[in-house]
Each structure stands twice: as structure tokens, then as C-alpha cells.
Amino acid sequence: MDALATNPKPIDAVRPRTKASGIVVLLVLGLSAGCNTLPHACNRDCVSHRVAARTGYSVGQTQCGEVIFPNGASLDDGLTEEEAVLIALWNNALFQQRLADLGVARGDLVQAGLLPNPDFTYTFPMPNKPFRYAFELPLETFWLRPIRVAAAAGEANKVSEQLAQAGLDLIRDVRLAYADLLLATGQFKVAEEGARIRGQISNLADGRLKAGDISPQEAATARVDALQAQQDLKRAGYEISLADERLKNLLGIGMDRRPLALVAGDPPSLHDLDVEGLTQEAVATRPDALAAVQAASAAAERLRLSRLSWFRVFGIGDATAGRRTGHELGPGFRVTVPVFDRNQGNIARFEAELERAERQRITVRNQIILDVHQAHFLFEQARSELDILDGKVLPEANEVVKRAERAYREGDTPYVVVLEATRQILASLNRREQLRVNLRRACAELERSVGRRLETASPRATLGAPTP
């Protein structure tokens, strides 16, 4: 007390220190409050909105092992293509697994925005040794944090765009599998028709053999051809089962062992397509193109961070037993001196990653151009070929078969002519089924390549609300 009485603290000397301490406290609190804000990270609803804006289909969430039939979809009254796509978006196991990446990206973004905890050191007093304690806080994290957050935000945006693209890919895959099952079913019907026609011809050959109009060899050839038609029919039946299983797997309903009954309309008809305009649109807006842009942005932020992250500045508040109050607190700092390590290795690595991301962006752009033009060519090829087949080939082939059967029944033509005519009509029918499916497949590929639905015959609301 005497020391304090004889040496009182000057009031003017105390006030500046008090003001400085208050400013430091307010600065730290302000920085801490500002660091609590983070960019928005895309979630499942965000991905669902992006997919629905492009296709009209929503993305749902199910529990593990649960199967939901949204929007009133059912297998009992037949499965339409739209119902199949919607069921897959809600139940496909691989797609639901990939949606979990959103949580990982969100966690990385939150972690990037966190500030490190301050370190506290305390040494106990001993005889002839005063106590000591100190606070240490890395100050560089306050101005490096925005760069970390920007890099993590770029990665999160990349993941969300990749998942939107995964949704488009799943829609394409389901439509292709749906078309494959339609093709297998159509080819089974053609095989049934072939077995019927060849069976009739075999019976006709047996009748002519009994009448002595043909040799046993010719009759045997007709019977073998009829048996081969039965073999083709049996194989076509198994093709339906295989296509059915592939579609069920994509829909996520493999545990349901009922065979799928498809309700398919006419093949899609897209007219007056501006392929160059669609290509430019796809390059600018397709999700995987946007994901490549976000990846390059994140790589640039990581490179920027690597050039600065070697720098370390620790703010120190050090206190020891003192002569004036017995508790003297003084400021200090500790800084890294970049004599040897300036993060050269990581800088070189992130420079390479940035170059790779930029080249990946160009690769994706080139792939999009190929996808759009290739799908457009395949669609036009299938449509033009189908027009010729329906308008010219099939009518002529039907007439040839009728004339050949009539001539063979009357004994005016050998069996080889009937066999060739039958082969032609069955090949044409099979080709017709294939071309109708090719139209569906090319349309699915074209819409996936552009990144949105192209059919605009009737406006539709977003599909996906589950029926209670």
C-alpha cells in the first residue's frame, strides 16, 4: 500500500492503455462475429430444384432399405416412362449414396470457416520463481479465412453441380433401360409372329409332301426352319427377363419380383432442332460444365492460399508476477521467418491442379459438343430410316410374303423363295422395333447432352410429391 501511495499511477497513462485494450477486444469480437457467416451450401432440396428446373422431375430422399412410389406411381396399372424416371430419382441406391456427398461438402465448408482456438499456457509459481501464463492466437487465420472459405465454397458448388449432372445421367440411363425392355418385348412379339408364319409354312409343306408335290428334303427344311423359329422365340423371352432386371436395378426395386408391364406411347418426335444453338446452350449451362468452372475456381483459391499459408503470426498476451501489481500482462508476437520453407512444394502442386482443372474444363466443353452433335445425328438417322421402312419397305415386304405363300400353296414356286420372303418380312419387323427404340434412345441422349428436356408438346408441373 505504501508503494502505491508514494507512486500513484498517472491517470493519463492509464487511459490510453484502457482504450487500446478495449479496441483490441472489440476488434476480436467483431472478427469473430464476422467469421460466423458462411456462403450457402447446396442441399438435397437445392439439387432437386436444379434437376426439376431442367427436366420436371424432383429428387426425393428415402431411408435406407425403404422404397417410395412418388406422385401416385404404381406397378399395378403398368409403368410409364415418366413414372420409371421418378421412381429411380427417389430410390436408386447409387444416386442416393452420391447425394451424401452434399453433407461432406457442407462439413468441409463449415470447417474452412472455423477459427483456431487460442492456446493457454500456465506455469505454477515455485520458490524464487514467479508464476507465468500466456495466451496465443494465430492472427493470420483472420485474413486467410476468406480464401479458405472461397476454396471450400467452390468445391461445394462443384459437388452440387456434379450431383445435378448425376441426376440427368440417371434419367438418361433409366430411359435407355426402359427402351431396351420395350425393344425386348417388341422383338418377342416379332419372334411370335415368325414362329406362327414358319409353323404355317411347315404345315403347308407337310401337306404338299403327303400329296407328293415336294420331296422329303424340302419338307424337312421347312420343319427345321419352324423349330429354329421356336428357338428364337425362347431366346427372346429370356431377353425380356434380362432387360426387366436391369430396369428394376436402376429403379431401386429389385426386391419386387413382379415382371414390369410397360405402358409406352409413341416414340418422341423432335422437329426443327437448332443443333448449333443447343450446343452453345449446353456448353454454357450443362451441370458438368458448370462443375468444371467451379473446380477451376476452387483450384485457383487453393493456389492463392498455398502462396500465403506459410506465413504465421501469433498474437501473445503474456503475464507474470510483477513488482507493480503482482500480475503484469504484456503484449507480444511470434512470427515465422521464411528462411527455408516457403511452401514451394504445395505451390507447385496447386499450380498443376489449377492447370489440370482448366484443361478439364476444355475437355468437358469438347465432350459436350460431341455429345450433342452425335445424339442429334443418331436421332435424325433413326427417324429418316424409320420413315423409309414404314412407308416403303414394310408394305412391299408384306405383299412379297403373301404372293410367295400363295404361289407355294399352288405349287408355282420353290420353298426357298418362301423362306427368303419370310426372312425379309421378319427382318423388317425387327428393324422397325429397333428403329423405334433408337428414336427413344437418341432422344434420351440428346436431352441429357443438352441438359434439359426438349419435348415441349404440353407443359407439365414438377413431378415428385409422394402420395400419402
Please give the CATH class: Mainly Alpha
Please give the count of helices: 12
Strand content: 5-15%
**Quick one: biggest sheet?**
4 strands, antiparallel
Judging from the principal axes of the Cα atoms, what is the shape? Answer: elongated
Q: How are helices and strands ordered from N to C?
A: HHHHHHEEHHHHEEHH
Output the structural class: mainly alpha
Rounded to an integer in angstroms, the radius of gyration calculated over CA atoms is: 37 Å
User: CATH fold name, please?
Assistant: Outer membrane efflux proteins (OEP)
Distance between the termini: 81 Å
Average of the residue pLDDT scores:
83
CATH architecture level-2 label: Up-down Bundle
Please provide the count of β strands: 4
Please give the domain count: 1
Top keywords for this entry?
4-stranded antiparallel β-sheet; mainly alpha; 12 helices; Outer membrane efflux proteins (OEP); disordered C terminus; disordered N terminus; 4 strands
Give the structure's gist in a few sentences.
By secondary structure, the chain is mainly alpha-helical.
